[in-house]
Amino acid sequence: MDRYLLILSTLCFLAAVARTTIAFRARTFARGRFNFFAIAAGFVFQSAFLSIRGHEVGRCPLTNLFEVFVFLAWSVALIYMLVGPAYRLSLMGAFTAPLVVLLQGFALLAPIDVRHPSRVPPNPWLEFHASMSLIAYGVFALACIAGVMYLVQERQLKTRQLHSIFYHLPPLTELFAAITRLLWWGFALYTLGLVSGFFVGQPLPRVQILCAFGVWILYAAILNGRHLRWFAPRRVAALCIGGFAAALTLLWGITFSAQLH
Amino acid sequence: MKVFCVGLSHHTANVETRERFGRSIETECRLRDNGCAEALVLDTCNRVEVYAAADRLIPTDEIVKCVARNFDHNISTDRATFYRYEDGDCAQHLFRVTSGLDSMVVGETEVLGQAKKAYEAARASGAAGPYLHRLFQRAFRVAKQVRSNTHITRGAVSVGSVAAELAGKIFGDLKKCSVLLLGAGEASERTARALVSRGVANLQVSNRSAERARELADLVRGSVVPFDRWFEHCQTVDILITSVSVEAPLLTCQNFQAVAARRASAPLFIIDIAVPRNVEPAVNELESVYLYDMDALQLVAQQALTMRRQQVGAAEEIISEHVAGFCAALARGVQPRGSVEHQASDEGVQHSSDAQFGESYRTATPTP
Questions:
Q1: Where are the alpha helices (DSSP H) in A84-205?
Q2: Contact B154 A167 (CB under 8 A)
Q3: Which residues contact B333 (CB under 8 A, 6 or more apart)?
Q4: Are the beta carbons of A164 and B307 separated by less than 8 Å?
Q5: B78/B82 Cα distance (integer angstroms)
Q6: How far apart (Å, rounded) are the C-alpha atoms in residues A105 and A89?
Q7: Omega prior to A121 cis, within 30 of 0
Q8: Taking a C-beta distance cutoff of 8 angstroms, is the pair A188, A159 a contact?
Q9: Cα A202 off chain centre by
């Protein structure tokens, strides 16, 4: 039953992707409500899935890689719905939906939904640590998407080849301001998640701690470079994309090592 | 009753021919005297068109004579430049005109305002009756629908507006932007005016002739920067417009390095409208610098026009639907006596301005 909800959610996001793709190909892309409503519907199904799964496992549903990926996709959709309209980044939906489809599609297709043989006892600190870290990942994902939007627009401006998408993108300086804010929010949430990890009351594998610190140092370096103006906006945007790809790989490593543990 | 249109436009006549025709105070009277029950003249710089309703066929020559600026003008030489559309074709033509599909710059919206003014004048003088009312109200609705449902008006198509639009895409709110005009020629002035119209308030002008710099600065409410100090100001401005007549570029990658270091990656939009160019093309490769010369600006304008033309098909579909609707309404017949209210509800008039038009028509039109 819960997997059907996830399939429905994925189909909603897929509808947003399909509509955007068709509109881009026909060069008639226009901001509309369809994407927002499709993403909102997908988010409702995601939430229902996580709620049912949470009741089943008796805690925050982050007990295996499958749930981690779904929770991450949920965080991405949540952050988009919170910051998209506020930062006039409504076009972000066109970029968010494919990422969610990718995350959920992988979760559904890969054999990673391995249930724990015994019920995992609830641990509020551990759940707080994991959920905060994943929401921070959601914010980093949005920063990555904003980075893609920045680079697309920057490239079009440099090459003077303006496509229909150009007219829907927010101005470069506003987009960069949004990237910076998202990076700070993500970093703050991630730091909170990282610190709460020391209170879980059980020993954590060293590789997991190293990976977590690796992500923290990476984003700290990007923010520091931005703050001291070592990095030009284009470089920061590119680093957001590279940083998120690296963080996602490390998340895999962290979750995988946690499962082995 | 037949609804028809006779006219000439930039498609069929050059400006010399077009300027021989137009609307005068007596035009509508002449048209009525020639048998038109209702008549309206749409007179713009690119077209002169008569829209009329009559219960008998009125020859094109008769109509043409009525819009000749010189009434005794021999129209035989101009006959081939006039076109004539009737009923459905007339509606289709007007819908294309008001939607900007028939304009020189596809998608321009000025013609809609001119059509509204022409209708308002004809309504006020009593020259437009229920047939033209129905035709024009629908034309205004079609234009609105085309603008809302297609991208026919998207993108700037003149050099000045392209520059202003690109500046908006880089900086967002232009009120906070500072602009340095290097050179005070006409092209600079036009571009500066386009930026001012988008909210730019901080303008500096630097020119070899300090007098001309002061003149332009007064015109755009800016300040003057001595010509030997313009380079220092490049460190702080957001937009640089250059139009100085020189043989070698004023700004090169080499001399810009020092400026770039002090700008700390703040974006700089350079509009080089000088020929020969004032800025070395390689400057565009530098981080956070966006250089547009005349060719680049024209390329962007061309792309916008191409994008608009790609929307013509979608616009034509909307128009076809409305032409069919108008023809059906015409076939049902229009009842002039106090029937405008029914017409409005028949056609589902929703837009407030349309309703206003209907209302004003009701109050202003004497019942025959």
A1: 92-109, 124-159, 172-196
A2: yes
A3: none
A4: yes
A5: 7
A6: 25
A7: no
A8: no
A9: 27
Q: Which residues of B are catalytic?
A: 45
Find out whether A53 and A119 touch, Cβ atoms under 8 Å. no
Identify from A31, A168, A173 which residue to disrupt to test chain B contact, counting B C-beta atoms within 10 A and taking the largest count: A173
Residue B173, classed as helix, strand or coil, is coil
A32 touches B at CB < 8 Å: no
Q: Domain locations in chain A?
A: 1-112, 124-261
By CB atoms closer than 10 A (0-12, 13-18, 19+), residue B297 is buried
Length in residues, chain A: 261
Other residues' Cβ atoms within 10 Å of the Cβ of residue B114: 17
pLDDT along chain B (368 residues), means of 10: 92 86 84 91 91 92 86 65 93 96 88 94 91 95 93 81 90 91 87 88 92 91 92 91 89 87 87 90 92 90 87 93 92 56 42 39 39
Instruction: List CB contacts (< 8 A) between A153 and chain B.
Output: 169
ipTM of the complex: 0.75
Q: Is A86 on the interface with B (CB under 8 A)?
A: no
Does B9 lie at the interface with A, CB-CB under 8 angstroms?
no
